[in-house]
Amino acid sequence: MPDRSDDLFRAMADPTRRRILDLLAEHGTLTVAELVAEFPGLVASGISKHLMALRAAGLVTATREGRHQRYAIDADTMAEAMAPWVARYEAYWSDALNRLRDAATDS
Hints:
Blueprint: H1 5-12, H2 15-27, E1 29-30, H3 32-36, H4 44-56, E2 60-65, E3 68-73, H5 75-106
Antiparallel strand pairs: 1-3, 2-3
């Protein structure tokens, strides 16, 4: 599987998209109208564009419910995309924290 972290971070670079993800994490699923209510000054077309970017990155899914679509986080894709990035830095931070612990115990 290719490293999708670039797509993920590009999609999450926008603060509005990060807030949409926060709201979806908090509520489970939301419609465009429900999201618009959380963003004064944005209209449905603006939210829809952000949702399209998040869907293209695989971060959210859409399910039709009557005339509306409900959006939800795709946690599996997020975890899959984050894994290579986290793995790259995990060894660094583990080593750094071990050195810090060793320095503290040597003092």
